[in-house]
Amino acid sequence: MGVLVMILAILFATLFALLPLLKKYGTERSPEELHNISRWITPLMAILIIVGAIRYFMG
C-alpha cells in the first residue's frame, strides 16, 4: 500500500510541476491542427476498445 501512495504522490508532484511549464512554453495550436487531431481520436478510441475486448475474451 505504501508503494501505491508513493507512486501517486510522485505522479501528482510531476503533474503540478509540469502544468505551469507547459502553459509557459507550450505553443498554441491552430484550428486546422486541432481539427486534424480530433479527426483521429474517434477511430483510434474505437480500435482501442476493440483490441481491449479481444484481449479480454482471448486471455
What does it look like?
The chain is mainly α and 59 residues long. The protein has one domain. It is 88% helix and 0% strand. It is built from two helices and no strands. The mean pLDDT is 93. The chain crosses the membrane at residues 40-58.
The number of distinct β-strands equals 0
SSE topology string? HH
Distance between the termini: 27 Å
Number of domains: 1
Number of discrete helical segments: 2
Q: What best-fitting shape do the alpha-carbon axes yield?
A: flat
Mean pLDDT, all residues: 93
Structural class by sheet pairing and helices:
mainly alpha
Reported for the largest beta sheet, the result is: none
Residues in β-strands, percent: under 5%
Classify the helix fraction into a percent range: over 70%
Instruction: List low-pLDDT spans.
Output: none
Radius of gyration: 18 Å
Key descriptive features of the protein:
mainly alpha
